[in-house]
User: Fold these one by one.
Assistant:
Number 1:
Amino acid sequence: MIQEAERLQPQSWMTAAETQRVMQTLNRDGARALFVGGCVRDAILGRPVKDIDIATELPPEQVIEKLEAAGVHTVPTGLSHGTVTAVAPGGDWDHFEITTLRVDVQTYGRHAQVAFTDDWEADARRRDFTINVIFCDADGRVFDPVGGLADLRAGLVRFVGEPVARIREDVLRVLRFFRLHAYYGQGAPDPAALEACTALADLLPDLSGERVAGEVLRTLQAPDPAGAFDLMARTGVLRVILPEAGACDRLRALVPLESEGVESSGLRRLAAVLQTDRAGIDGVADRLRLSNRERTRLRGAVTVGWSAATATENQLKELLYRRGAERYTDTLLLTWAEHIAGGRAGDEAPWRAALALPLRWTVPEFPLQGRDVLALGVAAGPPVGDLLEEAEQWWIGAGFEPDRAACLDWLRARVASA
Ligand code: ATP
Ligand code: MG
């Protein structure tokens, strides 16, 4: 068995009642289960832990049997590769991904054929990067079979084993490399990894759109996504997965603007880095299998031709009225970032004031409907919609002020003059 390396101070996610129950159940009768992956990695760095992965010697059927007997609900999320999710609702930590130790016998990307094992070292070798192979038990004893601790502290994302061979097993690891480097890397990336990623970038089209999207969007949420994208551009990876991503400068300018009450967003950052037209945006959404909601957001996050310094209050209100708060904020930030990237930054105050519009102005509802037009004797058909739109534009032009009666007066006069 691997040797103990050091000890992690007890963490709230480790001592939580649900975690303890799951770990105690899995560790009964001489079997062994250890935390692994993101939770250990982030806890060592003192970063917030997002989800809990557990590795165990028990085969999946026994994981299910033992946990269910202990009253913990399980979901067979990935039985063929040995993963069971334990669900313990109620606490802060309500689900646990439990994976049986395994070796990948044959690998075709995601559909690896696996064999279960009780050999921790073998399980360590099938994992991707050394910083992801630090184990820890329920008492905080840390086990470090492939030197992940030193790499983590040095900010070095290094493949377990030979990078080219590991990428050939699963080319997603190229994208995981750039993502993990964006979050954990300090200084220059590992040259061997970079060389392998460059050499094998042409295999990336084999990946499903969902897997690419998952990694790309998470990379975009890193503290310096533009740095990560620059690196992906230099290695030829970007050209293969996202050739539309030509606006790294705009992305770089956007990131520091996402502060002061504006939450950062991977999708907005994606919009910022894309340099393409509407059809191009749809192409990206298709390829990355984005949801309709995501596609709509991406379409709406396009720059406008004015700056906040010169925009009128009504121009801003119209944008907010027509696009809704989310796309309004996206559009403003993107436009601001474009001004900065183009060396036309200007004053920050008008941009911040414009961004605050949704807080100080409630978007009103247009007081007329199609039946108001029909009631004036206009025959059903396309002109009804056209007249309604005209009336709406008049109402917007009048600062959204006219009430229903005033709008009806305007419409009556308009119909009479037609
Ligand atoms: P986070 O949950 O913060 O994204 P993580 O490292 O926990 O990070 P998971 O996707 O939860 O990522 O995977 C858990 C562990 O499984 C990883 O730490 C790694 O050891 C292993 N792993 C995940 N994906 C791969 C892969 N494509 N190839 C090899 N090992 C992988
Ligand atoms: Mg995880």
Number 2:
Amino acid sequence: MEKVLVSSWCDGETVPENYVFPPELRPGDNLLPKSDISIPIIDLDKLHGPDHTSIVTQIMDACQEFGVFQIINHGVSMKTLDETRRMFSEFFKLPVEEKSKFISWDPTSKVGLYTSNYNYHEEKFHFWRDVFTQKCYPLQECIPYWPHKPDGYREIVKEYSVKMIELGSRILEVMSEGLGLEPGYFGKELSQDAEVNLNHYPPCPEPSLTLGTCKHSDRSLVTILMQGHGNVPGLQYCKDGKWTTVDPSPDTLVVFLGHIMKIVSNGKLRSGDHKSVTNKTEARESIAFFLCPTRDCVIEPAKALITPESPPLFTSVTYREFLQAHDANRCFKAKPEDVVNTFIKA
Ligand code: OGA
Ligand code: NI
């Protein structure tokens, strides 16, 4: 079982056939494309001062146009970010016998270490990545399931999770203000199932043929992503069919709007499509903090956004039902927008 992790069998030479994506999906030789898209970088500190309204506008413009933005001066210290990157990186360096205690593909378990994706066992092609996932909400109930090793793991990852939950709720408050929803609109069941994924992409002998993840939007309300230890590039964002590399920077966090934000905003905000690629020489890591609805939460356009001119575009479903449709529509079976189209009203 433990040999299933890419990091435990890859030898720097072999790429098994079921990791080679068909030509139309593989990245090809242009692994780090550039385009004229520039993802806005927003100084979050200015939310407190006289520029508040202009910062809210910048964020809402980015949410409408891109479904993604970057933030600086976000109030999470470099120490917390760096220590978290180091902890996760060291977790992946633990002996495979230690890590294999956590192997699980069950998306409802509090912690799980798996490879490729949740539907690995049905996939035709696998992603060149291993993922360690853990639930973070409510924190006190989740921490007892987290790893003890490396030393300091629980303490540091707890501090990081507290900061991400705080930051996430600040960002969501801006979005509810920008959309004209009541304060706290996103603060309840819509965001009360936080989890963090550590993505680990080992060096790959043929990066042009393989993928770290395929084009997707996240199944979250919002995701706060940081690129990992060593700042190895590999994240790409897609708008209207054009790809651009999101350059890593140690103090910058990337905020992606997920499918759920698109539904709740009744399509006023878009979700940000992205993927990740591997490279030949270095392992790459990224850390994604997902703010998600609880399983029983009803996902539907916010009532305050519905008018005769703007009727609801999506049907109401529970988040559990949404996930079932999402998992049945995995990216290379269908286009990412099909996940949400499943719920578009006829
Ligand atoms: C994800 C993701 C991208 C990356 O975890 O959902 O898209 O940069 N990760 O690894
Ligand atoms: Ni993603």
Number 3:
Amino acid sequence: MKILSGMQPSGPLHLGNYLGALRQWVRAQNEDAYYCVVDLHALTLQIAPEELRANTTDLLASYLAAGLDPEVCTIFVQSHVSYHAQLNWLLECVATYGELSRMVAFKEKSERQEGYRVGLLTYPVLMAADILLYESEEVPVGDDQRQHLELTRDIAERFNNRFGPTFQVPVGVQPPVAARVMDLQDPSRKMSKSLASPLGTVYMFDAPVDIEKKIAKAVTDTDGEMRFDWDQKPGLSNLLEIYSSLSGETPEEVAARYSRYGELKSDLAALLIAILAPLRERYEELLASPDDLYKVAARGADKASVLAGSVYRRAAAAMGLT
Ligand code: AMP
Ligand code: TRP
């Protein structure tokens, strides 16, 4: 089965990125899997050039540290494969302004920026190009990407109806728990790179002392009743989901084993540290040899270009380009 997913090089990865997406990628890497660093998407963030470069290197190291193996799956940087930008244009001539302006991510981000760029509106079309170029059947992403995936499906179906069967129509896949990890200080909003709260966000490569501190200070509630209940107990339920996603139990099973919040928190911190500490070590080793990371990316781009090129040419020909 073909699989593609990507992340923006927009800063260090947090627990939401890891549990919601990256760990799912590692589990699926034995399929015909393509994983990219979507640097073109990060340009919508108006990021400084040197920061974008550093973040791209960092994200490559993070992918490998998390367990993606370049001998098994294809790891590459989006801008190294020119077909993404090329197919993007073809799809911009299929997508409508109306559907793009209805995207929740666009509405939220455009409200926060004055004079926002066109790229913020067309962002999901480039994402559709990423996915459709690799004939992806499944796209492992966190819950916040559902709407973008639906749009990708709409664009693919519309294209196929208008120009003949060209694209595989993909589905988005979310993990059963932790598809939406919430901020530890404010469980009403998701853990996020862009709106990071210092104590509310656990980074994948945080030092163990910081992980302990952040989990210990996580906001819960005052009635002290151990119960998995997102409506009444969002802070606690968030911790139970994180725990469950690490231990493989259901959140209810985890809740049944504990009576005190403090105990749950200290065991959760220990579990997180046991899983993340070896990744952190590997991440630091990998970052020490950036040339090796770009060798991996170059091999990945060569391999990705073969499939992407053939799908691009099929789409261009279907539309009448000669
Ligand atoms: P981003 O940080 O927006 O580049 O997201 C990269 C990947 O992580 C996407 O698949 C997101 O859906 C996923 N993701 C981001 N934040 C969270 C979160 N708080 N919980 C679960 N998944 C997330
Ligand atoms: N929009 C995604 C995010 O913010 C990143 C992304 C770009 C992506 N292209 C993709 C995810 C293709 C999956 C497949 O997280």
